[in-house]
Each structure stands twice: as C-alpha cells, then as structure tokens.
Amino acid sequence: MTWMDRPPISAVFRRREHAEVNERRLRRIVERGEAVRIAPGSYVWRDAWDAADPLQRHAQRVWEAATRLQPGAVFVRHAAAALWSIDTLGAWPGRVDVAVDDSGGGRSTGLIVRHSRRVPVDGIVAWGDHFVTTPAQTVVDIAASHPFTIGVAAADQALWERRIGGALLSADELGDAAHAFIGRGNVRVDRVARFADARAANVRESQSRVLIHTLGFPAPELQQRFDLPGGGVAYSDFWWPRWRVIGELDGLTKYLDERMRAGRSPAQVLSDEKDREDELRRLVHRVARWRVSALDSPCALWDILTAAGLPTSMRRPGY
C-alpha cells in the first residue's frame, strides 16, 4: 500500500482552523506529552503518533506541507518516497523535500526544504493540487544524492515483488530512468539500478547485501524456498547453493512487532524460530546468523560468513 490516497493519521488539530483555542492551553498539552507538534500549528495525539512508524510519520508531514503550499508544488526525494511507501535506510529527514525550477519558488522553512532541480515532465504524476515524482524518478533522485547503500535500499523497496499491491516499478523502468538521468551522481544511479533486486524484503537485507558484496563474498540468492522435513515451508534471507550455506539477518522486529507476531508471544516467536532453524539445518551445511549491529562492523560480518565456510576475495577489514 501507499500513502498517496490518504494520510497515515486521520485526526490532526490545526491551529489556524481553531482560533478559539487558547494558545497557552495547547502548549501545556504538548508539554505534558499528550500531543505532538508535527508541523508549525499542527498537532496529533501522542498515542496516534507513537503507533505510526518513521515512514508514516514523514508521510504525515508531507500531507501537512501540502496544505500550506500553493498548488503545483512538486514533492521529491524522501517526501515522494514516504508517499509511495518506499522505505529508506537511516533517519527520515525533519523537513519535506520540494523541487523548484531555476526561477526559484520561495525559501526553505522549518517544515519544507526546497531543492533547485528541474524534474522531467515524465518523472512526475499529479497528486491532488500538487505533483509527486514517480517511483522510478524518486529512486534515481535518492540514489543520486545519497550513498550507494541508501540508493540500493530505496530501489529494492520500490522493486519488491512481495509488496502488498505489487511492485511499484519494474527493473526495466528503473533502468530506463537511470539511463535518462542527467546530473551529478549519474554513475552511482546507474550502479544502483544494476545492483537492485526485487527479492530483498526490507532495507536491512539490502544493507546486508551491499556489505556482503563489498567484503568480497559471492552474491547470494535471496528469499530461497525450502520445503521443511516437518511439512512446512521456510524462506531464507540469503542462500549460497554451491556452499549450502544459509544467511539469516536476525532482527528484533519479528519478536516485538505485534503485527508480525500474529497473536503469538515473543517467547513463542523465539521458539518457532528455533524450530524452523533446526529443520533448516537438516537440509543445509551451515546457517549463518547476524544482527543489525554487524552491519555497522564489517569485520563482524566477515568473521560470521568466513566461519560458515564462504570464500572471499577480500582480507579481513580492520573495523
């Protein structure tokens, strides 16, 4: 799903719509933590804000920015990514990205940051009174202005074949957009488009895949299906068939997120995960597991993968 048709949070209090509300009382509500100021003059209840993930929170800010801008604004980069529900690595920016042409178009504010960039006509679609870059254009814009890993994560998310509602674009569409891109970062954009993979399920898997490549290990297969001895089915995050090694990114979300637990307790999820791995071990040579922290320490992932028997063309990094 995307956040193009509706905002993540439906109930927003806008100061300009309620002149009768005492400003001091409103400030006290925020200070007590009962409400959150999400944009100048716009507030939501704390429980609604806490229930939203970082992508949804940024999408909400984009919707708020849209109510303040004159018709015809073009939302780009992370603003467009949030509307399309394209997740990215790292913290979401505190301000909303809007493109302006060479003639200007106003100054950046506490909510909005304006970028001097002319967006191709075929790279935007209408969004209410405004415009937003297409998924392909959004990906190449992020790839051009951010490090390679962040670009790959955004590309993988847009291509993701198991996304609810289907992938946002095809590999050919991404390749065409990358080929048409002109400006700084075009070499990186082309590299991102060639490296992107529609099977990566989340941004941490994309980050893992980039680091695996950087460390000189063979490219893994993604989301490999295994028919378990007990009759079930499991999918591995990474699979090296020649060495019969499975790689698993062990994130905490599966234990903490109620939606992913599907009514199970964290302890039950842990038990089910152990049973799944025990069955997988009967089918393969090794199962290598790593946590997100290993992605910030290349030597840690290098040690894990070499211990599992995978070859590498690179020496062990020093950090």
Describe the protein in words:
With 319 residues, this protein is an alpha/beta fold. The two termini are 39 Å apart. A 5-stranded mixed beta sheet has the order 6-5-4-8-7. The protein contains 13 helices and 12 strands. The longest helix is centred in the C-terminal third of the chain and has 16 residues, at 266-281. Helices cover 40% and strands 18% of the residues. A hairpin with a 2-residue loop joins strand 2 (35-39) and strand 3 (42-45).
Anisotropy-based shape = globular
| Assembly of the depicted chains | single chain
Q: Tell me about the biggest sheet?
A: 5 strands, mixed
How large is the count of helical segments?
Answer: 13
In a few lines, what is going on in this structure?
The chain is of the alpha/beta class.
Break the fold down into its secondary structure elements and pairings.
Layout: E1 13-14, H1 23-31, E2 35-39, E3 42-45, H2 46-51, H3 54-68, E4 74-75, H4 77-84, E5 96-100, E6 112-116, E7 124-127, E8 130-133, H5 135-145, H6 148-159, H7 171-180, H8 186-195, H9 203-214, E9 221-227, E10 233-240, E11 245-249, H10 253-256, H11 258-261, H12 266-281, E12 286-290, H13 298-307
Parallel strand pairs: 4-8, 5-6, 11-12
Antiparallel strand pairs: 1-3, 2-3, 4-5, 7-8, 9-10, 10-11
Helix pairs in contact: 3-4, 4-5, 5-6, 5-7, 5-8, 6-8, 6-9, 7-8
